[in-house]
Amino acid sequence: MLAQIILTHWQGPIKVKAGRKFTIKIPFEANPGASIRWIRDDGANGARTIPSEFKIYSSSDSTSLYVSSPELDDSGSYSIQLLDGNYRDFVKLHLLVVNVPGPPLEPTILQVVSNTVELQWKPPRSDSNSAITGYLVEKRDERSDDWFVVYDRVRQSCCSICSLVVGNNYFFRIKAINDVGVGVPVEVGPVCIPKPAPVDLSLYAPQLSNWAEMIPPQERPQKPEFTTPLNTRTLVVGYSGTLTCAIRGFPRPTIRWFKNSIEVTTHPRFRASWGQGIIQLEILRSSLSDAGTYTCFAQNAFGEAAVTADVFVRQPTIMNCSKI
């Protein structure tokens, strides 16, 4: 019988997760007494024996390699050599041990502008043999132990984190992602979101009799004033709803939302937005616990204002249709 190794289902690299046991079984055909050997090929460094942690089991028609806890360094090219008298056969396999990536490097706060933080970092020192596909970015208020996802996958190694609460301190952490999963985090902080500096009224001192006309209306000092109030809303369990109001004021007021006197501006169950003077709070997939009194609070250097409305939540109506 001509000695030969039968390799039918191992095509391309054999990919395994670090720390997870695996077995590679290679069938072969040979006469009784044939010998088989596993060798690790290190390229320019030549061949070397299989580590003692690797267990090899061979029978008359197959050979198996068992590894209980593979490591990243076990990745490489392996040869199986079959010797049957004067006949020889061999096959090469490439083992790729992968894992979640290491922590990103050098997280840096580039700048803090108003209630927005510019964050930057460098890729991990090791991607654990699996290419980085993105980054998970989270934030945490210094007064809480709970982390909230800001971005579940950022492609580049920088991002802007908006709508932070003025006067609060925040921590941020970044985790690299590859095909294996989410990696080890790196943390930066605390970062203080500063309160706006008081406006120097002398900047607006009249130099001419018509000085007010020299300043555009939208840039004249003005305390916050709600031009459209909040309206009472009734939501249905499982459906999202939005509270809306309108405001004016200069400098641009800081907006905070409260439910029953507890701030929810950055809570993941709510989505706050503001543009063109329109302020909105979206209640995501409402539940009965979302019912309560909601307050929109606005503040700038010239004063503050607030509007309040009640939100009710009811169960969906179930209609029973009888056959006629």
Automatic annotation (TrEMBL):
Residues 224-308 form the Ig-like domain. Residues 103-196 form the Fibronectin type-III domain. Keywords: Immunoglobulin domain, Repeat. SUPFAM superfamilies: Fibronectin type III, Immunoglobulin. It comes from Oikopleura dioica (Tunicate). InterPro entries: FN3_dom, FN3_sf, Ig-like_dom, Ig-like_dom_sf, Ig-like_fold, Ig_I-set, Ig_sub, Ig_sub2. This is Oidioi.mRNA.OKI2018_I69.chr1.g3897.t1.cds. CDD domains: FN3, Ig. Pfam families: fn3, I-set. The keyword Repeat applies.
